[in-house]
Design brief:
This protein has 146 residues and is mainly β. The longest helix has 16 residues.
Length: 146
């Protein structure tokens, strides 16, 4: 009985604290998918109190800014908070959300295009293995390590 309980607790602990590495871009920022076919990406980095979201093509090369739009929200599902989005030469600039909150981005390649939604949990706790913030964790999933 004790052995079974210890096994169950060990399994629960592994699942509860497991995390998977995320895809990082050329500037070591988090890659988010802004298309259904992986032809457009957003690379999210933090500078000061702002998220900077650079647009990248399928080869992770910079994309020229033109008619693209981005909407950003955070907060509770029943009380979402819309964030101010600014455009710059490389992409978009959005205020950083509080640690542990979700950043929900809706990207459009053109005004008449259908929006693609990307989500990022801004988990700032430090990964024990790679020593980076969890939202930028480079660790491979346990399945890939074997």
């Amino acid at each position: 009985m004790k052995a079974r309980l210890i096994t169950l607790l060990s399994l629960f602990t592994a699942v509860a604290f497991a995390h998977e590495g995320v895809e990082l871009g050329p500037n070591k920022g988090r890659i988010l998918e802004f298309s259904k076919n992986e032809t457009m990406h957003g690379e999210v980095i933090v500078k000061g109190d702002k998220f900077h979201i650079a647009l990248l093509d399928k080869d992770k090369k910079p994309v020229a800014m033109d008619k693209q739009t981005l909407t950003a929200t955070t907060g509770e599902r029943d009380k979402p908070v819309k964030l101010a989005v600014e455009k710059d030469a490389k992409g978009f600039v959005v205020p950083v959300v509080k640690a542990g909150e979700w950043l929900i981005l809706q990207y459009k390649n053109s005004p008449d295009a259908k929006a693609v939604t990307a989500r990022l949990e801004y988990n700032t706790s430090t990964c024990e293995e790679c020593k980076k913030a969890e939202w930028l964790c480079e660790c491979k999933p346990a399945a890939e390590k074997k």
